[in-house]
Design goal:
heterodimer; A: mainly beta; B: mainly beta; 4-stranded antiparallel β-sheet; 1 helix
């Protein structure tokens, strides 16, 4: 049973455009939603994270939007650059307690930003 | 440099062989985990530990053993390698999951033939 569904699988965006990646979750115990960025041959790295007490969080060109009632959250990359080309993973877990140590990841989105 | 160190980077095993993937961190992190990454499958949790002497199973624990005798080290043992265990394995550690997330190692690419 896939608990975090991520789409699209791959995404091609022109330089300067907006990249949008969507995730949906099923487990209502999830209340911590991070995004990880992975470059080829490297391990994933934390990009940005959000909790349900806010509907949006912005860090530079990266924004997470969160819809608690729909159990959906998304990553927006504004002014996308070739250096943003990577695989992006959404994830979810409870914020505290034993379950907080067990991040559930989406299947990933391979983003290619073309000049 | 501080971080999570995984060895080896690449390994080829024959079916039935056993081996240990090493993971060490020098950040004094209590939380450590092992994930496997397969094409189109994302990252799936194998085992995790919340401190020395404490381990627990994740989503896909079968065929793997772990132990945590020190805060720094969290080795992953394959008991009898199978082709289905061909994957890229990542070790990760964290001081505070919610505030800092995981720091991942650079991975071990394992092929079982």
């Amino acid at each position: 049973q896939q608990q975090v569904k991520q789409s699209p699988q791959s995404l091609i965006v022109q330089k300067g455009g907006i990249s949008i990646i969507n995730c949906a979750y099923e487990n209502t115990a999830f209340d911590y939603f991070p995004w990880y960025q992975q470059f080829p041959g490297k391990g994933p790295a934390l990009l940005i994270a959000i909790r349900p007490d806010v509907s949006e969080k912005k860090e530079g060109r990266f924004t997470i939007s969160f819809n608690k009632s729909a159990k959906q959250f998304s990553l927006h990359i504004m002014d996308s650059q070739p250096g943003d080309s990577a695989t992006y993973f959404c994830a979810a877990s409870p914020y505290s307690g034993a379950g907080s140590y067990q991040l559930t990841f989406g299947k990933g989105t391979k983003l290619s930003v073309i000049p | 440099n501080a971080g999570v160190t995984q060895t080896p980077k690449f390994q080829v095993l024959k079916t039935g062989q056993s081996m240990t993937l090493q993971c060490a961190q020098d950040m004094n992190h209590e939380y450590m985990s092992w994930y496997r990454q397969d094409p189109g499958m994302g990252l799936r949790l194998i085992h995790y530990s919340v401190g020395a002497g404490i381990t627990d199973q994740g989503e896909v624990p079968n065929g793997y053993n772990v132990s945590r005798s020190t805060t720094e080290d969290f080795p992953l043992r394959l008991l009898s390698a199978a082709p289905s265990q061909t994957s890229v394995y990542f070790c990760a550690s964290s001081y505070s999951m919610a505030n800092y997330g995981y720091t991942f190692g650079s991975g071990t690419r394992l092929t079982v033939v």
